[in-house]
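Action item from last week, closing it out:
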Amino acid sequence: MQENISVSGVLCSSYDSLFEAEKKIADYILGHKSEIIDMTVAELALASGTSDATVSRFCRRCGFNGFHHLKINLAKEVAEERGNSIEVSNDISRDNIAQSLQNILANKVAELTQTISMMDEENLEKILSVIEQARTVQLVAVGNTTPVALDGAFKFNQLGIPAVAGSIWETQVAYTCNLRPEDVVIIISNSGFSKRLMTLVAVAKENHVKTIAITNNASSPLGKACDYHITTATREKLLLGEFCFSRVTATAVIEILYLFLSVSIKDSHDRIRRHEITISDDKT
């Protein structure tokens, strides 16, 4: 695992894949970050109603070398939060909209910061090259990530990269069946555990199509099955009390790809300008 990674972000991203006992540990850590720093494995096990072995397994499952490694990263996170000049928490209430806005902003900034910190430059360069050289790019998603795929297709088409996305699952799979090795599929998923998306990846691989996954779980089946993987961060659990996917970071990844491609694809700005002129009559 990389250093200086937000423990809160890692736990939120991994939460959906944890066992019930491990979720108890994650819940306790997220609710008692300052206290955890001075705890032992046995003390955390007792406080969370689990066992020493479960705590150790939990740390490794979340990508840490052990409980000590988790505490080091957690201490850095707590110190950074305390050094923030603006007091923030994870509470959202319409009784205090001003403070709630600061809380939301702090968590969203943390999501974006962690997402970018997890990006490997070499991996990103390979992904950009694959997309740039693709004959066609298919962006695939199900459920609440569908808008991100639709936005990606819109942006890539603006750059002159033929791209397609859809909201009907059966149509998406049918399109994948017709792809060739010179095409690319980008799969966007919350947990990375979707059976339907795994089926689509299998179809793409049968056609020798390159695959790119965007998920917020570094160890997800989708991430492992694809040729390339970008891991996003989410802190929605801290705000809502239950695991929920944030489209902010997935959309940011699409935006990052779009911006890098816009400076490397010849005449991309002219293509964008042409598209804007074409649709300008519809704007009043």
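Closing note: The chain has a mean pLDDT of 87.
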